[in-house]
Amino acid sequence: MSEKTSVAVLVSGGGSNMVALVDSMLQDGAHPGHPCLVLSNNADAGGLAKAAERGIATAVVDHRPFGPDRAAFEAELIKPILDAGAEVVCLAGFMRVLTAGFVSQFEGRMLNIHPSLLPKYKGLHTHARALEAGDAKHGCSVHEVTPLLDDGPVLGQAEVPILPGDTPDQLASRVLVQEHRLYPLVLSRFLRGERAPVYLD
């Protein structure tokens, strides 16, 4: 079997999608990926402790000292990624918008999970927006990251029905279950060179 691909995962909070990703890599001996780094812009991110418990290297680059200078922040952010030898980057609840300058350095090698059925509801508050629109279904998408927000090629989607009386939080919790199924599957396929979208329900 060929050498595993080194994967860095970027988080800002609890890191539940990160856990789904790294556990799939650590527990499946045939998985083509290996988690080499979990990186956060928030020193208090719960995902850092979960990564450390799994023996994964962690790093923090706080965005706040850089103020509005995103380029300066990203110049520091990329250092631990390169130092770790990451070949692929997965965004898993990383709550900073990355500039074209950063994204271009990982063109074709960066994935993100977004809580909507793209191209619907790019950006924030996706669950509330789906409810306000009266949609019958909602879900999540894994896509390649491009300089345009939530705009890259979709590699996979999972749907959930919207139920009568759903609140944004209730809908979000059901979508999150699907995120944890979808993201590891798409990453594994992506690392094997499979780019055709996969759809779960």
UniProtKB/TrEMBL annotation:
Listed InterPro entries: Formyl_transf_N (IPR002376), Formyl_transf_N_sf (IPR036477), GART (IPR004607)
Active site, per annotation: 114 (proton donor)
E.C. number(s) listed in UniProt: 2.1.2.2
Annotated site residues (Raises pKa of active site His) in this chain: 150
Q: Which reaction is catalysed here?
A: N(1)-(5-phospho-beta-D-ribosyl)glycinamide + (6R)-10-formyltetrahydrofolate = N(2)-formyl-N(1)-(5-phospho-beta-D-ribosyl)glycinamide + (6S)-5,6,7,8-tetrahydrofolate + H(+)
Q: Which UniProt keywords apply?
A: Purine biosynthesis, Transferase
List GO BP terms, alphabetically: 'de novo' IMP biosynthetic process
What CDD domains does this protein map onto?
FMT_core_GART
Identify the residues that bind (6R)-10-formyltetrahydrofolate: 70, 112
Top-level division of the source organism's lineage: Bacteria
* Residue stretches in coiled coil: none
**Main role?**
Catalyzes the transfer of a formyl group from 10-formyltetrahydrofolate to 5-phospho-ribosyl-glycinamide (GAR), producing 5-phospho-ribosyl-N-formylglycinamide (FGAR) and tetrahydrofolate.
- Provide the protein name: Phosphoribosylglycinamide formyltransferase
Organism, by scientific name, is: Tritonibacter horizontis
